[in-house]
Design a protein that fits this description.
Radius of gyration: 26 Å
Shape: globular
Low-confidence stretches: 509-535
Helix content: 55-70%
Number of helices: 19
Number of strands: 6
Number of domains: 2
Order of helices and strands: HHHHHEEHHHHEEHHHHHHHHEEHH
Distance between the termini: 66 Å
Oligomer: single chain
Mean pLDDT: 87
Length: about 525
């Protein structure tokens, strides 16, 4: 059995690299289409200000893209180095979308980024616009294929376990690609990127407007980002509900943990607004509840029962008992291939094989026949993720989503009324909103990945048996090394971003553009002068 400390350190290392990398991904996804929208206006109107907008925001996009690539390359290698059993077990399935992502999306995106940056004087307006859209398409296709791979981990579709090769094999590429979880997650993640880019542009534009710099560029950028953002935020909330609806069927344990629902209640069940889940007591220390809300929220009905953790544990215990027989038959087939009795036993319990693996860690001397009822109970409770972490990561994600929706409603209202520059308090607030979508995306990733535990592939392969057999020292050293390196990447990104933001667009627009004002403390351009310029 793999050292549990090695498994935990492997999880921490992949989580750290993924969380760092995911700081860059949403902005890349969103900025590509934001740049395409700005350039579309430039091509259709011929107004030079929109070209300058594309060039300026494009610089910030390129900084983010370069560091996003640097942080993402190592993650694919980690599957082979730190998760070798997982890679061997599902490599036939997991490798296909990652290979397609590299060949189709990443190469396309990387190639056309060069044309987008250096092609302004070499391409016609329409050609350059097409290149920009191809960059946007490539970045979002890249996200699609990665989320198809992740979707298989969340809800394995289009594959079958082969007891002869002892690994999963791809049986249907369309089923893998069009998995409901993968498609819902792709749309949700992509639109979350549009929200991130919108707040990024709004926050920096508001900073310029507050200081009276690059007013024309900032004003138009803010308006486009606000309209882009209010639609994207409404979409990400709506599609988040759809993703939850899909996940309720694929991963009921994740859903129950998200809602800290320890006991099954008659429909319509109450909704826990806030709670303090206690995993040891299998209950909430306290909970603020709204009656009758949870059932329609999750099932879109008033009479469908939502299973609580108690019912899920009992159901999973039954699957574990069945899965133990599948694992026992698999071991017999490994020793004696073609054994008719073992083959029949395996086929009868094959669908519960993963739950047998889940219980194997508790088998004395690896003898599944010696599992006690208490061991089966432990394995059944292992099938429930960390309820506290899942409940609060989900709540924080949703809370930030609602905060961003309110921000964009005000942004759109102020910019359409043409009095944004009179709202000094709002201009001061907007830059502080920039971290919010990044944090919301991180908490969304935690909700998805923590809720999948204790599985690397839900219902098929437990995390405890997926890792490589490294030493604790090796894993601790590599974890510290990755965290240090990626922290340096973050520092570089922040330095370059702040440098170019302070520098601003290379060409000054009219009015107060180019004039430097003291930062937030004062020196704001006279209100009357700014009002005359309009919003």
């Amino acid at each position: 059995m793999i050292n549990p400390t090695v498994v935990e350190l492997s999880r921490w290392q992949f989580a750290a690299t993924a969380l760092y990398h995911f700081l860059f991904v949403p902005l890349t996804l969103g900025m590509t289409f934001m740049l395409a929208a700005m350039e579309t206006v430039y091509v259709t109107t011929g107004r030079e200000i929109y070209r300058r907008m594309v060039e300026f925001w494009g610089k910030l996009f390129l900084i983010n893209f370069a560091l996003g690539v640097a942080t993402g390359l190592t993650m694919e290698f980690e599957f082979g180095t730190n998760w070798s059993f997982y890679s061997g077990f599902v490599g036939d399935i997991f490798g296909a979308p990652l290979a397609i992502e590299g060949l189709m999306a990443f190469f396309m995106e990387s190639t056309f980024i060069g044309l987008m940056v250096f092609g302004w004087k070499r391409l016609s307006k329409m050609q350059h616009l097409l290149v920009t859209y191809l960059v946007a398409l490539g970045s979002n296709l890249s996200a699609l294929w990665i989320l198809v791979a992740n979707g298989f981990m969340q809800d394995p579709q289009g594959a079958h376990f082969n007891p002869v090769t002892m690994r999963m094999e791809l049986t249907s590429l369309p089923a893998l690609i069009f998995s409901p979880d993968a498609q819902a997650k792709f749309v949700h993640t992509s639109i979350a990127g549009y929200v991130t880019a919108s707040i990024f542009v709004c926050g920096i534009s508001a900073w310029y407007l507050y200081r009276g710099r690059h007013v024309e560029l900032a004003r138009r950028s803010f308006r486009m980002a606000a309209l882009f953002g209010v639609l994207a935020t409404a979409g990400v909330i709506t599609l988040g509900d759809a993703l939850g609806f899909v996940g309720a069927h694929a991963q009921p344990s994740k859903l129950a943990a998200m809602e800290a629902m320890w006991k099954t209640e008659p429909a319509p069940a109450a909704f826990n607004v806030v709670a303090w889940p206690d995993q040891k007591r299998h209950d909430n220390a306290f909970a603020l509840r709204i009656p009758y809300v949870l059932t329609p929220l999750l099932t879109h009905t008033m009479d469908q029962t939502v299973p609580g953790i108690d019912a899920i544990v009992q159901h999973n215990r039954e699957r574990i008992v069945s899965g133990v027989q599948a694992v026992q038959a698999l071991k017999q087939l490994s020793a004696k291939p073609g054994d008719a009795a073992a083959t029949a036993q395996f086929q009868a319990h094959e669908s519960d094989l993963g739950y047998g693996f889940l219980a194997e860690r508790y088998a004395p001397d690896d003898d599944l026949a010696r599992l006690s009822p208490a061991d089966l109970d432990k394995a059944a409770w292992d099938s429930i993720p960390d309820v506290f972490a899942e409940f609060w990561s989900f709540r924080l994600m949703v809370g930030m989503g609602l905060l961003m929706l309110g921000f964009f409603v005000l942004s759109t209202l102020f910019t359409l009324r043409r009095d944004l520059q009179r709202q000094r308090w709002f201009l001061r607030l907007a830059p502080w909103m920039i971290p919010v979508p990044f944090l919301a995306c991180e908490f969304g990733w935690l909700t998805a990945e923590l809720g999948r535990q204790p599985w690397t592939v839900y219902g098929l392969l437990p995390t405890w048996m997926s890792a490589s057999t490294h030493s604790v020292g090796y894993m601790a050293f590599s974890l510290i090394g990755f965290v240090t390196l990626y922290s340096v990447f973050i520092a570089i990104e922040m330095y370059l971003m702040l440098r170019f933001i302070r520098q601003g667009p290379p060409e000054h627009d009219g009015g107060a553009a180019g004039s430097h004002r003291p930062a937030w403390g004062g020196g704001f351009a006279p209100a009357a002068a700014m009002m005359r310029k309009g919003d």
